[in-house]
Amino acid sequence: MDIARTPATPDGNPEMADAAYEPKAPPEIRRSDYAPFPWLVPTTRLEFELGLERTRVTARLDVERNPVAAVSPTIRLNGDGLELASLTCDGGEPEGRMMDGDDLLVTLSGDRHVLEIVTEIDPSANSQLMGLYASGGMLCTQCEAEGFRRITFFPDRPDVLSTYSVRMSGAKAQFPVLLCNGNRVDSGESADGGDHWAEWHDPWPKPSYLFALVAGDLVARSDSFTTMGGRDVELNVYVRDGDLDRTEHAMESLKRSMKWDEEVFGREYDLDLFNIVAVSDFNMGAMENKGLNIFNTKYVLADTETATDGDYDGIEGVIGHEYFHNWSGNRVTCRDWFQLSLKEGFTVLRDQLFSADMGSEPVKRIEDVRILRGVQFPEDSGPLAHPIRPDSYREISNFYTATVYNKGAEVIRMMRTMAGEKAFRRGTDLYFKRHDGEAATCEDFVRAMEDGTGLDLEQFRLWYSQAGTPKVAATLSHDGDVATLKLTQTVPPTPGQPDKKPMPIPFRVALFDRKAGTHSGEQLLVLDRASAEFTFEGFAHKPVLSINRGFSAPVSIERDVSREELVFLAARDDDPFARYEAMQELMTGYLVGSVSGDLDESESEAARGDIAEALKAVVEDDQLDDLMRGELLMMPSQSYIGEQMLVADPGAIHVAREALKTDLGTRLGEALHRLYDRAAQVPFSLDAEAKGARKIKTLVLSYAAASDPAKAAELAASQYDRADNMTDRQGALMVLAGLDSAERTARLLDFYNRYRGNALVVDKWFALQASSLHPQVVAHVEALRSHPDFNLRNPNRVRSLYMAFAANPAGFHAADGAGYRMIADLVLELDPINAQTAARFVPSLGRWRRIEEKRAAMMRDALERIARAPKLSRDTFEQVTRSLG
Ligand code: ARG
Ligand code: ZN
């Protein structure tokens, strides 16, 4: 099935529209054009006769006029590449029908009608993985955002809510398990026993994007949960035979999510059954279909032999995320796709708070900020910048972004910070109560927050409409016993938004007494003008400023701070995030200065000495737990350093960053190795202490790799050989993969042989090589492209090789442009197969404006070559055009 559109002629005649292809911009959809759908669809009946190559879908829609919408003589039923087998209206021929592009328009003159639509689809040919598709012999669906229209003709928009009943039938041997949304109400077999069927009913009205179906040969881990209202819920995690012993963590995570949402948000589950199914071909992480969550296997399967600590955390977070959508997404859904952050931003915040409660709150906060700054800040400062509530799109799949998700979560977190936890809960309670069963807007959410908390959020709404990361300059002056903090904000221009208004920015702030090393309490300051001054009395000496504690606002700060003050904060700020931040700033400041040539040799030497001293204090601070210590020892990422510069030279940053690593590894060698030896004594477990020890070990290895490669290779090889868990083994192999040593080759081979056949671990094997610091990384990736286990049709495998590579500056930004060409080749080859996944590779090339000119020209060339392709998907077309624009 092809998703490229044929443009409709003005009279909507599909035959006429079928002219020779000419590349033409797909239409732009605007938020301001929203109008309610003229028809309601109170009930939907679906019958599926399932087959991998041929599935017949009979849809019966009860439709009636929507009293609050404009009267229309037709109903628009969206389709995408569908063939209509038959159509009746009230049992007969409809008064009129025509195709408008891929959509079906049916003339309806009465107030109520019954439409019956039959389509036939080929799931095995569906490589886009949207709609109904085959994955390893099973059938499954992905309907968000606009996949349902690839199954049947339907008003495929989130504001059309319908109650679904579904009958599925198919060969019993091929599809022993038949699952759908809601509850299974009946089942049976054909007379000869070859076929069987199941009848499902979902009592909760839902938009089509939450529809799901699974048919296949699956086994389940089953459990149960009793809700706070006393409802017994049957829980199942379905996987392929053989994977069952890797589902325990997913099930435990699910039960913890259900309990946590009751305790923290007062949200109770609302069906008797909750199913999760793991699928190995999946475009995204997971999907919150009502009562039938479908997951990428990556976010379900784990045991300590094959999954890292990071994988365990990822599973807990994503299981929580999808479960929490049952309220923030399903019970209250979105009016239109411009409101996507209504459910995604809020649900990301909910999963972040959940994970923080399950593990280390400060470490979770630091990890979340690292993702925001590593992925969202670049988005916000590049050609694809958009507000968390976009104003227009051509392909909605392109807007499942870090901005909508992660910045969206930060925006709601700021409301929580300003309101306080208790008032925030009153706001969310009111939101759920007011909009339960509705398709709501971001504006509805903000209004419920205002009414529930008493905050005035008039100006705060700018966070929904303005793109770009605000920059705040902070200077602290001192006179007599008064300290004055001057804050000035600018919100940079972004595409389509040249002029910005000042936004309210909440800062948690503390002023430290330099001598005592303490402060007398944290304050919340809200900067709501372009510039403001805040005064603090009672300071005999100039205090040290600790600002944006806990990362209370998603902004970047330029503070007038000395290195000595940063060393002070890195050693004793009582806010763990602020402490981490001071350490990062110490290193980032040095690296930016050194790349820009702003530091002479003695300044450089002094700076490196200070950084080493600060790190040494962290190594030796016995108040710290190792998880947090690991954060403080981590160097800023190359892309974060690049973000601090107007135009970055990736080659120079890479060299400077590696040189600092070498220097620090040398200066701290002994202290780091003592730390390693201590950590190596901690026996394996999944508790925080043991996780911290594992984090430390690999971190020490990576410093050692820079300062003493031979010793690092030996140490890493022995960590690899003795590993009794994937975290240690992968960490060691990651370090080895960057070293040109005999140990490298042997351990890579061992890893592959040990885990071949386990797709998720083979993904790691591809990713480790693609993200390595090895000088031959480009050639390695080229060779891996031809490996028999590489498969362009499996998104996990594509990402493991190429996403890892695109995120590896040492390879992607290779000086001869080979990395850019490789990604462009991939996009062109993948686009007809899986447009959504292909389009996700475009933003890396779209960063060209912020890269030095030689590389920038080659990045542009790569984009232009993609743009010249005779036929591009809407997804890739939109991303490439915006990136060049
Ligand atoms: N709602 C899903 C989640 O965040 C993501 C679905 C994304 N689908 C897509 N076609 N982009 O959990
Ligand atoms: Zn989500």
Characterize the structure shown.
The protein has 885 residues and is of the alpha+beta class. Among the domains are: 42-65 and 72-217, Immunoglobulin-like (Sandwich); 332-465, Neutral Protease, domain 2 (Orthogonal Bundle); 471-553, Aminopeptidase N, middle-beta domain (Immunoglobulin-like, Sandwich), CATH 2.60.40. It contains 29 helices and 31 strands. The strands form eight sheets. The protein has a seven-stranded mixed beta sheet with strand order 5-8-3-2-11-14-13, with no helix packed on it. A hairpin with a 2-residue loop joins strand 9 (131-135) and strand 10 (138-142). Mean pLDDT is 96; it is low at 1-22. Zinc ion binds at residues 321, 325, 344, 347.
List keywords for this structure.
single chain; 885 residues; alpha+beta; Immunoglobulin-like; Neutral Protease, domain 2; seven-stranded mixed β-sheet; five-stranded mixed β-sheet; 29 helices; 21% strand; globular; disordered N terminus; binds arginine; binds zinc ion; Peptidase_M1_pepN_Ig-like; zinc; Aminopeptidase_N-like_N_sf; alanyl aminopeptidase activity; Peptidase_M1_pepN_C_sf
